[in-house]
Design brief:
The structure is a single chain. The chain is mainly alpha-helical. The chain folds into 2 domains: 5-38 and 244-451, Farnesyl Diphosphate Synthase (Orthogonal Bundle); 64-229, Terpene synthase, N-terminal domain (Glycosyltransferase). The protein is 65% helix and 0% strand. The protein has helices at residues 5-15, 31-35, 44-63, 67-79, 87-103, 111-123, 151-161, 169-187, 193-204, 216-224, 231-262, 275-285, 292-315, 318-330, 341-365, 372-394, 401-411, 414-425, 428-443. The two termini are 12 Å apart. 28% of the residues are buried. Residues 447-454 have low confidence and may be disordered.
């Protein structure tokens, strides 16, 4: 649509008194507070301590000969947020365990061992069948009641059941069976408070659904309370936790400086100022120190998703939103001169940031070709999907469920964030064939005209 400068000028004058507001709560994370974050765990002395403790833990991989002991050791390492320090050791240990299992069925090791074995192997992408639990079920397919006295086994069976694939009925039965027993145990008056808390935690959300990094601290406290705690592993977990937290604090200070220098927040008072929350979301996706750049890029993208979403949902008139969408689709900042000042500021900051992110990814990965066309395409699709919803609102149109879901797939920002994550972690060896696939899936996918309300 051709944006008429005169028409927009007249409408902007009227709209200043008619702009909607979501009445968002003010941002609680002040710039000075973020810049004041300080920690001692950036010092080299702590890095040396970690390396020394890592060597001791590596030796423990060799010492853990018993199948269950090795599985529990790997499980503890992952729950404590240490898996990135022992990726090779974990892979080799699991490969060895799988090879052993192929020649020595472990059904006789008990339900707990089988459930732990199943969960860890399936989490790591091994092709492990639900039939491993068939030996614990009756001919009718129900789990045998004699196993219900083992709280530890039931807890592990519940966690394993949440990794079920479609049609895996044994695991569906396992979930119902273990859930019922664990709820009865939780409600019993003869159970220690510590056990009740552990079971309630698992029943509320399984490991598979939790954000790993934000669960690490509770696992450290749980390990501390055990009588047979591995002191070396516990010490490493605490030290690593503090050092990773220090990395996150430094990241946040850097990102807050970027945002303060890029965009005056007072000009975007209608929108959510959620930079810290955006960063915490990115930490949940990849907390490891080596993913610093990924967290930075993802935080910037999430921040602009929120701001642009508020422009379409709250601030802009339909004519302004059409102009904004055209500017994004053409990737041209000349059109924005016809928009309100705050939308100009937003577009310019957004435009510069996405160009910068594309350049940084290309430089860091050492790629010859720019990924900007792909990022531009998903952002343009995102804005066009938001424009569809703005038109629905403007016309008081109620979409069908299919229309809503089809458009929501894009307006949810899933493709934007997924593509950025894809490029951020992709290795050069897989790039060529996958980029060809992306060209087919993304570059040639238009926004369905059936969703547009004329």
């Amino acid at each position: 649509m051709d944006c008429s400068k005169g028409m927009l000028a007249d409408q902007q004058h009227v709209l200043q008194c008619q702009r909607r507001s979501a009445n968002y709560k003010p941002n609680i994370w002040k710039y000075d507070l973020l810049q004041s974050l300080a920690t001692q765990y950036n010092e080299e002395e702590y890095k040396r301590q970690v390396e020394k403790l890592k060597e001791e833990v590596m030796c423990m991989f060799m010492e853990a000969v018993d199948l269950v002991a090795k599985l529990e050791f790997i499980d503890n390492i992952e729950k404590l947020g240490l898996a990135n320090l022992f990726e090779m050791e974990i892979k080799e240990a699991l490969d060895t365990i799988v090879a052993f299992k192929n020649n020595h069925p472990i059904t006789e090791a008990g339900l707990y061992a089988n459930a732990l074995f199943f969960r860890l192997l399936r989490q790591h992408g091994f092709n492990i069948s639900q039939d491993i639990f068939r030996g614990f079920t009756s001919k009718m397919g129900t789990f045998i009641k004699t196993t219900n006295c083992d709280t530890k086994a039931m807890l592990e069976l519940l966690e394993a059941s949440h990794l079920a694939l479609e049609g895996e009925n044994i695991l569906i039965e396992a979930k119902a069976f273990s859930t019922g027993i664990l709820k009865n145990i939780t409600n019993s008056k003869n159970v220690e408070n510590k056990v009740t808390k552990q079971l309630s935690h698992a029943l509320e959300l399984p490991l598979q659904w939790r954000v790993q990094w934000y669960d690490v601290k509770s696992h450290i406290h749980e390990l501390e309370s055990n009588d047979n705690t591995n002191s070396v592993l516990l010490k490493l977990a605490k030290l690593n936790f503090n050092m990773v937290q220090a990395t996150h604090q430094n990241d946040l200070k850097e990102i807050s400086r970027w945002w303060k220098n890029l965009c005056p927040v007072e000009n975007l008072s209608f929108t959510r100022n959620r930079l810290v929350e955006s960063y915490l979301w990115a930490v949940g996706v990849a907390f490891e120190p080596q993913h610093k750049s990924f967290r930075k890029w993802l935080t910037k993208a999430i921040n602009f998703v929120l701001i642009i979403d508020d422009i379409y949902d709250i601030y802009g008139s339909l004519e302004e939103l059409e102009c904004f969408t055209n500017s994004v689709e053409r990737w041209d900042d000349k059109e924005i001169q016809r928009l309100p000042e705050c939308m100009k500021i937003c577009f310019q900051a957004f435009y510069n940031t996405i160009n910068e992110v594309a350049h940084e990814i290309q430089k860091e990965k050492g790629w010859k070709n720019s990924i900007l066309p792909y990022l531009h395409k998903v952002w343009a699709d995102f804005c066009k999907a938001l424009l569809v919803e703005a038109r629905w609102y403007n016309k008081s149109y109620t979409p069908t469920l299919d229309e809503y879901l089809e458009n929501g797939l894009v307006s949810s920002s899933g493709p934007v964030l997924s593509l950025l994550a894809f490029f951020s972690v992709m290795e050069e060896t897989t790039r060529e064939e996958l980029v060809d696939l992306l060209a087919k899936l993304i570059m040639n996918r238009p926004i369905s005209q059936s969703r547009m309300v004329k």
